[in-house]
Amino acid sequence: MSLCIGVLKETPAGERRVSLVPGDLKAIKALGAEVLIEAGAGASSAYPDAAYEAAGARIAKSRDELLSSAQIVLFVSPPTGLSGPGRTGQLFIGLGDALSKPAPHAAIAKSGASTMALELVPRITRAQSMDVLSSMATLLGYRGVLLGAEALPRVFPLMMTAAGTLAPAKVLVMGAGVAGLSAIATAKRLGASVTAYDVRAAAKEQVASLGAKFLEIEVDSKEAEGAGGYAKAVSEDFLARQRAAMLKAVSDSDVVITTAGVPGKKAPVLVTRAMVEAMHPGAVVVDLMAENGGNCEVTKPGETVTVGSAVVLGPTNVVSQLGGHASQMFSRNLLNLLKLIVKKGEMVLDTKDEIIREALVAQGGDVVQPRVREALGLPAPTAAS
Question: What is the pTM of this model?
Fold first, then answer.
């Protein structure tokens, strides 16, 4: 009997992605595995069951059937109720919220099943093709600009018309990671005048390469740059100095898009109520970190808040609004990871491989990922863990 890989239908509200698309099934079959799809799994992202069947997958009549048949279970967001339904030898792979919500992984570990959290795939060159976070962040930044453009009562590009000249919108992007760079590129393509800020000095060159201005603020950027190019948590004093310098830049902008996040931590507050109150009538803040606590002091997840004469958008499930392409990118990242795990129709979790070792959260009845163990208040793993 060949290895069975199961694809769950997403259950969290607003989630429209699917973890595996029909176009990647041929490559999965080449690994020596068969694919079982929960009925309707791809419907929200425009991948009907018929497309999966045409590509060689079977459709499971129920979730119970899928979970009892699949050795590897794929998902995008942690499924509702996924807290211990596994069995020995079974592997669950998806975005696991492992650092912020580690308890379900501990529960699954007790069942003897293993879990891998895609957000823990290390940021190394060899893992770039498996980097789900970067793929989703690219779409997040793009969509965030469109949300800002829709809410702004002005056009983005310079327009010279018989009725006069319309000045380009001034867009400020806060955070120049993958999402921020995507936002910069999108706003530039729409014709806006773009300025960007990031606490990491290394981001200045990347911002300039996209044709945007880099906002210079006199703070020590070394305090904010962590390993692997990610931002890290900083002191409240650092944030206070940063906010003071940001006041003028925010008040001068038509649209502010915030993308600053720290893996496994609450998003830092960069835009205060006072900054929003200083913005001119019709100005817009799009807080793309709304689901992680928000970069703006007044953000309410899933709501649009009016402060003074400006509005603050706290969009959620942003990437899911682009379900088709988001699923396509997610699926390809996941396929590349599966190529490390599935060898000639067998599941092999080689923890000598840095990618597998870092992403593996639960195995052999225990939580084995050091950072997740720390989040659970458990001691560091021993050599035998």
Answer: 0.91
